[in-house]
Amino acid sequence: MLFPKRINYMAPMLASAVILLLLVSGYFELPSISSYSAAPAPALFATALDAVGTRERSPFTSLLSAFADWDAAVGCPRIRAKLDAVGPPGYGANSTAAAAASITGGAGWGGGGGGGRCEDVRTRHVGVLVKGWTWIPDALDGVYTCRCGVSCVWSKSAAAVDRPDALLFEGATPPPQRMKGLPLRVYLDLEAARKPTGFEDIFIGYHAKDDVQVTYAGKSFHTSRSYHVSTEKRNDALIYWSSSRCLPHRDKVAKDFLSLVPHHSFGKCLNNVDGPDMALSMYPVCSTNDNGKPHWWDHLHCAMSHYKFVLAIENTKTESYVTEKLFYALEAGSVPIYFGAPNVWDFIPPNSIIDASKFSSLRELASYVKAVANDPVAYAEYHAWRRCGTLGNFGRSREMSLDTLPCRLCELVSKRGGRNADAL
């Protein structure tokens, strides 16, 4: 007689109990539905600048209307997702270290003159006396409270700094020798050539390799200007250009390019608005109302804000030499058309400029500019960095600007020992 085989239930029951115990203890972790939905695979997001020229031509003057069109078509969440997923370089969590290195040589604030270990601070108070200068602004004079408990006095007057720890020279050569007990010699040169004198103890320049780096992204040296920013853009003249230092190579590029696009040229070079001081006549709202004779730089930002684009051509094409010509345009709510430093993206927000080096000819560049000028959605995307907070490397560039120089220099002087530093 055949009997059914007895089934042993104990083994699977014990195995199930062990697995349940491991799950409860957290030894195994099974994926949940929510974990799959919260982390989708990165995808390429097509946004407005990926389709310039494909939308119907739509001339516009209202910047706010263009923003509304872009919000409806793209929007901040989509642009953030795109930048996080696919770049550009210098944006997103995976590029934070690279962004810092490109601006500061990889040392954070330390690469720019400050930062690093507070244990290295040797003096708690530092005085900097500005001795020889050409354009270092008076607005920097003052008392600063800096990192690591360091206080800093920066002044052009010996009444404020009678026993300086450092003497700052810009436009004048430091003394050839320094003895222990005398102030450290600091020399600043932000011009393209960037030439140390050989007599300084600390060199300040625009490059990450310098002892203290300073970018042009600050606001300290133009605090008296009219910062009225127009919400209306011109359609008859697309580009603002202003230059009163007529360099042959720069004027040639400007002349060849501007001949292809409607523009207004202020200043002395290539002027086409009946004189170098016509901005206030054209835009009375730009007056600073100071009852003094206006200078062209007083209304620079305000005037260029009426144009969709600003032509920004550096004096020379040099690595890291990114000057106020570009940053003025960004602050004025215009889109810079940039000719200059090959690593310009190390200093600016993503999708904030039209990089001329990306075009095969000036004619191709001009065609693109005119297409964007008649595409409010694409044009508005060049402003998304400001509206959506996608600053990218611009945040680092601002940190290393002239605005933060007093504290960064004072901290480095403190670490060197100030007046008590050994003579070199």
From TrEMBL:
The keyword Manganese does not apply. It is an enzyme of class 2 (transferase). Keywords: Glycosyltransferase, Golgi apparatus, Membrane, Transferase, Transmembrane. It is found in: Golgi apparatus, Golgi stack membrane. It holds the Pfam family Glyco_transf_10. GO terms for molecular function: alpha-(1->3)-fucosyltransferase activity. Residues 236-416 form the Fucosyltransferase C-terminal domain. The keyword Membrane applies. Pathway: Protein modification; protein glycosylation. PANTHER family: ALPHA- 1,3 -FUCOSYLTRANSFERASE, ALPHA-(1,3)-FUCOSYLTRANSFERASE 10. This is Fucosyltransferase. The lineage of its organism: Eukaryota, Viridiplantae, Streptophyta, Embryophyta, Tracheophyta.
